Structure formats: C-alpha cells, structure tokens
Automatic annotation (TrEMBL), chains A, B:
This is Citramalate synthase. Belongs to the alpha-IPM synthase/homocitrate synthase family. It comes from Pseudanabaena cinerea FACHB-1277. One of its GO terms (biological process) is isoleucine biosynthetic process. GO terms for molecular function: (R)-citramalate synthase activity; 2-isopropylmalate synthase activity. CDD domains: DRE_TIM_LeuA3.
C-alpha cells in the first residue's frame, strides 16, 4: 500500500457489517468470491468477519491463508475482551489469532451508557478492556485498528469519558481510530464539529503527529455518505463502508457512492482511475453473488443513473454531456442510456464483439441484427452482463459461425412427493429428446430436483458423441424472479455457471416456466463448453477458474 | 397556511418530478388519490403537473377544481414562455391559467450554456422570457414561485449571469426563489457557500427584506437529502422533494427522510407532530398506488429501519431504546421489530413472541423448544427474518395453538415442453391430495409454471371449505439457491409473500427440490391467511398492505 498525500484508505466491511442486512446471507464460497473481487477493485482493507463468532467466518480466514490477496490487507474483527478476564485468557481471542491476519480491528465502547447498561460493567473496567485487548494483540505482532462504537452519541453524552477511551486505545498501540456513528442518527454538522475535536486531541496526545482517523457511518438518517464525506473534509483518512450500502437496518455508507464522490469531485485518491472504472461491474457482480436485485436508481452505478429521456434533453446531452451529466459515466464504468436512440446500442455491440476478436462496423447487417436480437431478448428479461457465453453464441449465430452440436427437441419433467418416504427427498425424473448428427436420442434420468434430473438426462444423451462433456460441471445456479409482483406467474431468469476445471463460462435462460428457463441455460452451457473443446481454446468469454 | 417562525414549507413534487422515474406511471385517479393523501399529511404545496404538457395533467387540474384540497396549496408547473413570443400570446400558458390554481411555479434557465446550447437563444432573450412570463401571470392574479433550473452548475460557470436571472424574477414579482441542483452533482459545502451569496444578494435587492429561498435537489451523488438540509441551515425555508425519493435517474430529495430530520433533529416545523406520525403509512400507500415495492431499508419509514438482531443488542434496546435507536420509531409511525436470525437466543425469542401478544419466560419448556426448532430449521437453510408468518406458525405449534385447517398429503407435478407449440409456453400440470376435515380431496390444475399449477390445484381443493382463500394472492416469490457451488443439486429456499388486499405476510420453504420448497411455502401461506380470517384479526406478523 503506497499512497499519495491525498490518499483515502477504503476499508470494506461488506463481508462483516454488510451481511447484517436483513435478507442477505452469504456462503463461504460467496465470501471468498467477493473478497477476490474487492481485492481487484483496489480497496486498502477488507474486513472478512469475526472469526469464532460463527464457523463460517473462522473457515473463511483459514481458506484465505491458502489463497492470499494480492493488494488489500485482510482484517479480522473482534470486540474487546470480556470484563474481568485477561486478553491472554479470553477464549474469544483464540480464533482471532488463528485467523493469521496482519491487521486486527478491535471495537470498544465509547458511550458510558453502553458500558453500564449494555456490558453491565464499570467505566474503569471498560478502559482496561480496551487497553488490555489492544496491547495483547500488539504483543502478538498484530497491527491494530480501533473502532470506537457509538462514538458520536457517546461523545454527546459524556465527552470526557469518550475521549478517554480513544486515549487509552492510542496508548495501548492502536494505529487507526475509527469513529462510528453506530445508530446512524448523527447529522453532518455534528460530525464536523466532533471530528475537529478528536483530531486536535489525538494530535496533542501523540506529540503533534498527524492522527489516522477513520469514519464508519450508517444510513438511518439518509446521511451515511454525506457524513463520511464531511469526516474526510475534516481530517479522516479512512472510510469504512460496504458495496451497495448493504448493512443492518438502513445500511452502511455505500462505497459505490463514496468513492466516486471523493475521487472524481473532491480530489482525493481512493483507488486507481482504471480500477474506479470497474466500479459499476463490481457493484452488479456483488448484488448477483448475494442474489439481491441491483438498485437501478443507485447513484453512479445504477442502470438508470445516466438514463435520459425526452428529445431536447437528449440532443443537448449528445452535443455537450455536461449539460445533463454531473460526471462522465465511463469514469465509473457506467454508460449513458438514451431511451429512444439505438445509435448508442450499435457502438456498444461493436465494442463488446471486439472482445471476441471480431471486428464489426455499424453498416454491417450482422451488427444491426445482433442489436435487434439483444434488445428483443432484454425486453423479455435476458441480461447478458452475467451471461456472456449466451451472448457470444448469439453473436456467432448472427455471423453464421455457430456449429450445431445438438438440438433439444423436447423434454418432460415429473416430480412426485411420494418418493420422499423412500429416499428422504422429493425425487424428480426427466426425459429429454435430443437430435445429434440427425439422429434422435431419447434418454431419461433421475435427480434430487427437476433441474438436476434434466441436466443428467441431457448429458446421458450427449456423452457418447461428445465425451468431453464429462469434464463440464455446474458451479453456480441462480434464479431471479423478474416481475415478482405477479407471484407464481412471474417470468423467471436462470443464470448458470459452468466449469471445465480450467475456465468458467455463464449462460442465461428466461421463461415463465423455471424448468424451461433452466433447460435453455443448461443447453447453451453444454454447447458453449463443446465449442471450446472442439474449436476455440481458450475462449474469450470465459474467466480463469 | 399559518406557520411559526421556524417553519419550513414542504413542496411536494411527487406528481410531477416524481413521475419522471423510470418504470413509474400513474393514472389520473392515482394522481388524485396521492394528492388527497399529501393534503392530509400536511405539506404546504402540492405540485400537480404541467397542465398542457399531456392531457392527463390538464384533466387533473380540472378535477381538482371540483374537489379542492383542505390544507395544501395546489400548484401548476410550467416553463418560461418560448423565445420571441410574448407571454400573452404563447399558447403554452393557456392551460396553465385554465388550471385555476392560486400558485404557479415557473422554471427558467440559470445556466448560460443551457440558454445558448439548449434553448438556442440569447442571454438577453432568456432574461426577457423570465420577466415577461412572471409579470404576465402575476397580472392574471397568480402568486409566483420561480424555479431556477441548473442553478448551482449555472452559478459555478457564470455567477454574474445566474444572479441576474434571479434578480429579473424578483423584479417581475416572484415570491419564492427555488435553487435547483438539476443534475444532482453538487456537494453540500458548495450548496452552503452559494446559498449564502444568494441570500445576501436577494436581501440587498429587496431592501433588506428576508428572502424566501427554496431548495430542489437530486440524488445523483447520493446527497439529495444532505443538500436540502444544508440549504435549510443556510436560510432556505422551502424544501422541494418527493415521497420515497421518486424521480428521474437516481431520484429527488426523499421527503420521508427530509421531514423527520428537519423536525425531529433540527428543531424546524414542517407539519404537525400527529401528521408526522402518519409518514410511514403514507410512504407505503404511495408505493402501493404507484405499484413499486416499498424499500424495506429506507431511512425512518422502511420495514427494516428499526429492526434489531443479536442477543445483547436486543436486551439493551428493550431496557433503554436510545442505546440502539436514533429516534423513537412511533414518532414517524414506524415500529421496532425484533428479527429472528441465526444469532437468536432465548431473549430474542421472548421479545419476538411478545409481538404476538404471548408472554413467555426463559424457564418455559416451549421457549427452549421454539429456539431449538428455529436453530434446526436455520441449519437446513430456513431464514425467518423474511418469513415471519412461518415463524409464528412454528411458535403456535410449540404452544399447542395451531389449528389444523388442512394437510397436504402428496403432490405430483408434470412439465412438458411439447405444450409450447400449442400455447406459447411450457405448461405444467399439478395434482395434489389434501386432507380437510378427515376427508381426502384430490384435485388437478394447470399453470404457466410448475409452482403456479401447484398453487391453483391447492386452492381448488380448499376453496369449498374455506371460501376466504379467494381473497389471498401471491405478491412476491423469491428463490435463493443456498449452496450454489453444488449447482443443480443445491438446496433451494423459497420465500413467498401473500396479501389479502389489507395485510401482507411471508412464508418460507426449504428443500433440495424447488417444487417441494414452493409447496411448503404456499401451504403455510394459505394456512396463515386462514388463521387470520378465522381467528385473529389483524394478525401481528403482517405488515400493512
């Protein structure tokens, strides 16, 4: 981490505080996946969780030891030790050390009320807990970030005691002092006033050294981002937040809003400009991983953030973008959407297809055909951002370059709850009729669910012709209901990710029937894998495994 | 409108700027419905639309003449007259006068670039357009609000010209001067600096009279609310915004966030306290009218805004609410929710069950039984935070208070892709065997997908016994694959939301077979609806519709 003078250290807590959002749950694999993406984005710190608070977080830190991050510092989070124990004997700290991170974030109580009513201990014991925990972890060769929980409320109620907790953390060896607006109720002018005081106090206690202050805000007053920016303007150099503002209640400071504001408008440096231009993609990938619909109206990264309607408006923005756009959408990897003009669409297609090594011009018939087909499919719910293999197949189709490995003629799927008594689950059976080399293959298979049964039947039909299929396996299966207000009559989009152990690729299927949507995505996934094995190696719309 | 000295005039533009949101459309009846509700909430001004811009808006103002508002001033919106016409001869102003409102809001260009590049006229002609339009409408006995479009960007590029447009509006007779951050790119410190200058300029031009300044902000930088609050702190006394922050691109300042901040935290008065306590209900009613899902994570009014999880946390908030709540949820008509999550302990269960009017103690066997069952189900993938009805059924089961309306004995589901040629979609058939009053009912139904077919078959079996079932409908259907790395063999969690038109409730089902998981959730949803209809009304784990 080498940073210029106007550097702001971005501390991502999506994997810990973000997962407190109601309705959000992540698997171990999801956490690793998100950490890898955050590392690539270039944030300074990634808080992985509270090792020991649950088995998943402890396992996460173990797994991360075998696949270390390239850029970011991985941080483990914990509280101060329990009252009337010592840090050295508190079992809570054992998994924290076992996480083997260079950095540990310790949170402690700043608000006297929380010490007496929450922890039910004395103000003096709370100071001892802060001191002992930080000093012990420092003695174990860790670097320390101190999260001052309920800082602003605590300061307002008892400023002397609140400042004493920070002084204790400083003297015990913490390097960063993060002021938390835990309940999210503080307004920007109070943030400014209080940070000024903290800044001066820390500087005085530390013999004039510039203090390293962080800010951690929540959005209960709709001001998490404003509060974080205000803190930076008053001397904070670390901002804690989450991707897409995920977090308890109304969420945390949204890093997808904080970073562009700091970097594009206020002259600070959080990540490299070319990393910032990946922000929109990252935001959508994370929402995809946690399976929450992306917020189309999110600042900067939302699909509607640069959408323009109306004639005069559109011609003005095309003549001079600053008339209606506060920043250049490309700087954060978003793009202008003009509802009525398909001109922007054509250049998008050309840019995308260039990725496959294909050069198209606007005048080419295939170019217009691809655009029209894409728009038609998007209209019915397709989304190619997370299904690039399906998009490549569509492009090759338009160019007459899509070999026909097989065709699915029909399928039948059957589920019976009666199998439950025998096998413990509701087994499904599927039959599928596939045409390969002009010959029909009718196969049947059984699986734990209807989609598993269909996948197996399809493979059975194809394996004799294409033995490579044995190497392809499904690594992810995601379902999204598109017009959910229609209940069970809604359109379903299925996204499937395949792997052959070396590369991964993704396909999509859309239908008002989930089995039908899955069948489409599986069919294209197997087709794309064959395309790779037989002709193209490595393909261009795959990702390294 | 009589207001005390710390009064802030709330100007609602949900019906005009709010409807610019992508995906939002309202009928004439919807607009009247919303206007009536806003009037009851107590806002000072309601902007109804641009009469003449479309037939719906003209008709709206006609209809409102026959059913006038009780409290709020209805406002019609329009631009300055066209270049090189006179206001008296510009046909655009005919429907504006026909709207017969006391107040008219005229918007004009503040930014020189928009005059020359957008309107393609001269800077002098733009001033004449502002002067002529305002003076003409004033001559027709209207009171005038002047919206200075692109104010902040205009001021930054050419402060002299921007100020000249305001001075022109003042001299022509406008009473309010609304500074618009049309592109949403301005930061709070620039808002503060520029409003200070406007305040002093207007005061000087008007012989020392306190100026009436309004603020109109957009959320492109995630700062619409912060910017509005900053403007008020620097002298603005009118705030324009929309309910739920609806609006073009990333939306307008959310009045459901602005009003509680101003009134509960900053000492201003927007509406009466008893009106403010209707805010949560209003927010949800408006989202219902415009048919957009309410944002559960919205500040103040979201269903998750006062949701608590975690053991220590829950007991602390019950002992002393200010430990974890920045305001009293009742002040805006919201309420505290204790969430059941995998961190649940006995005290969580007790607090949660209290919501159902059931008093449990830690020593009770049922209490421990509920906790154990909850943990078991969470282990296999259940999640009760979004399925509170399923949780209530579990609690009633443990307490021996769950009437048996019906039991699903078995089901069969069948999908065939061959129907596609005939009906355009992959139809599904389901048969289900249900036991009601010890008698078996075997029914079959057809639907667009397997889950729809199953839902219909189940209703067919139950409708003769429980006709209330006809009033229950599915409003949301969510699917989450839990261990997605297992591909199609993964566990599936289905969350379903039902409504009876008055209340909403949610259930969950988990299985390695998506049909089985859906069947469980649908069964519990219908059961819970019956529980409500037959015995408890209104139930406690429902949300207002």
């Amino acid at each position: 981490m080498s940073h210029p003078n106007n550097a702001i250290y971005i501390y991502d807590t999506t994997l810990r505080d973000g997962t407190q959002r109601e309705g959000l749950s992540v698997s171990l694999e999801d956490k690793i996946h998100i950490a890898t993406k955050l590392d690539r984005l270039g944030v300074a710190f990634i808080e992985g969780g509270w090792a020991g608070a649950n088995p998943k977080d402890a396992e996460f830190f173990q797994r991360m030891q075998t696949q270390p991050l390239h850029h970011a510092e991985l941080v483990v989070f914990c509280s101060t030790r329990r009252a009337h124990l010592t840090a050295a004997t508190d079992p809570m700290l054992v998994p924290i050390l076992a996480a083997k991170t260079k950095w540990v974030t310790v949170f402690g109580k700043s608000w006297d009320l929380h010490v007496t009513e929450g922890l039910r201990t004395t103000l003096a014991e709370n100071l001892a807990m802060i001191q002992d925990t930080i000093a012990y972890l420092k003695g174990c060769d860790r670097r320390l970030i101190y999260d001052a929980e309920h800082w602003f409320d605590g300061y307002k109620h008892n400023p002397e005691y609140a400042l004493l907790t920070l002084k204790t953390a400083l003297e015990a060896g913490a390097e960063w002092f993060v002021l938390c607006d835990t309940n999210g109720g503080t307004l920007p002018h109070d943030i400014a006033r209080i940070i000024n005081i903290v800044y001066e106090s820390l500087k005085t206690w530390h013999g004039g050294k510039i203090p390293q202050i962080g800010i951690h805000t929540h959005n209960d007053s709709g001001l998490a981002v404003a509060n974080a920016l205000t803190a930076v303007q008053h001397g904070a150099t670390m901002v804690q937040g989450t991707i897409n503002g995920y977090g308890e209640r109304c969420g945390n400071a949204n890093l997808c809003t904080v970073m562009p504001n700091l970097q594009l408008k206020m002259g600070y440096r959080c990540i490299e400009p070319e990393q910032l231009s990946q922000l929109t993609e990252l935001s959508r990938q994370v929402s995809e991983i946690v399976n929450l619909a992306p917020d189309d109206h999110a600042p900067f990264v939302g699909a509607s953030a640069f959408a323009h309607k109306g004639g005069i408006h559109v011609s003005a923005v095309q003549r001079n973008p600053i008339t209606y756009e506060h920043i250049a959408p490309e700087s954060i990897g978003n793009h202008r959407r003009i509802v009525i003009s398909d001109q922007a669409g054509l250049s998008n297609i050309i840019a995308k297809v260039e990725n496959f090594g294909i050069c198209l011009r606007k005048e080419d018939g295939a170019c217009r055909q691809i655009l029209q087909k894409t728009k038609e499919l998007e209209q019915i719910g397709y989304q190619f951002e997370s299904a690039e293999a399906s998009f490549e197949l569509l492009v090759r189709e338009a160019l007459g370059d899509r070999p026909k490995f097989f065709a699915i003629k029909n399928f039948y799927v059957y589920c019976s709850s009666d199998t439950k008594h025998l096998t413990g689950s509701v087994n499904s059976q599927a039959t599928v009729k596939v045409v390969v080399n002009d010959v029909e293959q009718l196969t049947a298979a059984e699986g734990s669910g209807p989609v598993a049964a269909l996948d197996l039947a399809l493979r059975k039909a194809l394996i004799n012709f294409y033995p490579e299929i044995a190497n392809f396996y499904l690594t992810d299966y995601k379902v999204r209901i598109l017009n959910s207000e229609l209940g069970t009559h809604a359109t379903t989009r299925v996204l499937i990710e395949f792997s052959n152990g070396k590369r991964r690729w993704s396909t999509a299927g859309v239908s008002d029937n989930i089995i039908d949507a899955s069948c489409k995505a599986i069919g294209e996934g197997l087709e794309y894998g064959l395309l790779s094995a037989v002709r193209y190696s490595p393909m261009l719309t795959t990702k390294p495994f």
